[in-house]
Amino acid sequence: MRKLNRRGFLGLAGAAGLGGVWSVTGFSEAKAWADPTFGGDPFSLGVASGDPHSEGVVLWTRLAPRPVAEDGLGGMPDRRVEVRWEMSEDENFRRVTARGVESATPEWGHSVHAEVDQLRPGREYFYRFRVGRDISPVGRTKTAPAPGSRPNDLRFAFASCQNYPDGYFTAYQHMAQEDLDLVVHLGDYIYEGPAQGSIGRGHLPAAEIFSLADYRVRHAQHKTDPFLRDAHQAFPWIVTWDDHEVENNYADENSEDPAQSPEEFLARRAVAYKAYYEHMPLRRDSLPSGPDMRIYRRIRYGGLAEFNVIDTRQYRDDQACGDGQHVPCEEAKDPSRTMLGAEQEQWLIDGLGASTSTWKVVANQSVMAKADRDPGPGDLLPMDNWNGYEPARQRIFDAVAERGVENMVVITGDAHCSMVTDLKVNFDDPSSATVGAEFLGTSITSGGDGSDLDTRGREWLAANPNMKFYNNRRGYVRCSLSPTEWHSDYRVVPYVRTQGAPVQTAGSFVVEAGRPGVQPTTSSAV
Hints:
By secondary structure, this protein is an alpha+beta fold. The longest helix is centred in the middle third of the chain and has 17 residues. It is globular and about 70 Å long.
C-alpha cells in the first residue's frame, strides 16, 4: 500500500479543495466558547458508546444543532466547546461513578470521544453529556467481563448495509428492544451515491459525495433516524467499515472509477475516514492520519468470546478478473494476492491460534465461504469478496486447521441476504475438515423489501453443499453464546418501504463447542 507523508497529503488535500479542516492530532487553536447557546438541539445526533473493555468504554456524541447543514459544520461556529460527561450505575444519576470534560473542536466536527476507564467489569452503566444549558439523552452501556473470567452468557446482535433511501430502519426499532450486551456493525453504515429512492428518504446531499462536508452531512442524515439513534443509545457498539463508507468496491488506493488517480482517490478516502471517525464511538487508537486509519482490533469478553474485527478494504489487492462475477482467472489464483495485507493477515492468524476464549469470532465484511452461482460443474464466483482472494482465504483456513483452532465463527455482512454455512478446508470436497461456521447477516434496508428466496438463493443452495440456509428479507442476527453453545436467530421484517413492520425469526441455528459445523434448531425464540 502506497503511503503519503502528512506534508504530502496536506498539499494534495489543498489542491483537491479539501484543506482548512484537517488536523491529525486534534489540537485546536479555536477560541473556547465560554457560554454556548444553540439555535437547536446540540445533541440532535444522539449519543453512543463503543469498544467496551473490562474496565472502560468510549462515549460518543457530536454537537450539531443543524445536523444536515450543507457546509457540514452542523450549525456550529468555529469555536472550541467544553463538553461535560458523567457515568452512573443508575439511570437517574444518583450513583455517579465517573465524570469528565472533553473539548469538541471544529477540526473534528465538534465530535466527542471520551475514553472512560476504572469502571467495574461486566457492569451496566448509564451516561450523558452536558454543554451549556443543554443535556443529552441518557445512554446505556456495559463493560466487558474481567480478563480470565468465564462468563456463562453473552448476547449480541450484528447488522450491516443501511441504504437510507431504500427503506425505514425498522429493524433497529426491534433491535433496541432486545436484551443485548452489545451490537456489532459490519459495514456500509452509509452509502456514497446520489440515490433518492421513492419513499421520501433521499440522500443528502442529493449527489455522490466527495468532500469532507458531503461525508459529514451523509453521516449526520443517518444519525437523524430515530431507530438508529435508539439502537446506539441502548447498547455499546463495535464497528468496522466496508466499501460504501468511501466508494463502492474500492480496493486500497484503487478507485472503482478508472479516471480517478490513486492520489485523487486517497484524498477522497482521507476525508471519508475522517468523517467516519467523527461519527463513530471509536477509541483514539483508530484516529485517522491522512488516508490511513487502523480499524482492525481485538475485543475480549473474558474467556467466553474474542472478537477479531478485521478490515478487508484498506490493504487488499485490486479485484481480480476486472471485478464482477467470473470463472476464476489466473490472477484470482495468484498466491501473492491478499485481502487483509500481510501484517493484518498474520495478526489474525496469530490471534486465532493464541486465543484461550471459547469462541473465536471474526467480524468480517464480505462472504468468506465459497459462493458458487453455477449449479453445474463449473464455478461462477464474485471477485469482490473472499472468493476473489481464494489463496488468502486458504492460508487462514490452513493455519486454523494446523494450529487446532476450535470454535471459529465468522459473522459477515455486505451481501444483503441471510445465509448459514460450514467453512471447509476444501470447499470442493464436502468430506474435508470443517474449520468453522459462517453466519451471513442480511441488510437493514439495502435492496428494499426483499423476499424469502430469490434467484441467487436458489443458485447458492444448489451449487454449494456446505450452505444450510438462505433468506432474502431485511433484518439482523441475534446471537446468544454460552461455554457450550452458540445460538443464532435470524430476525427479519417483511417490508421496509413502509413503516411499522413486525419482526419474526426466519431461522435458528446452533454451533456446539468442540463440534465443528452448524446445526438447525426448532427452538426459535421470538
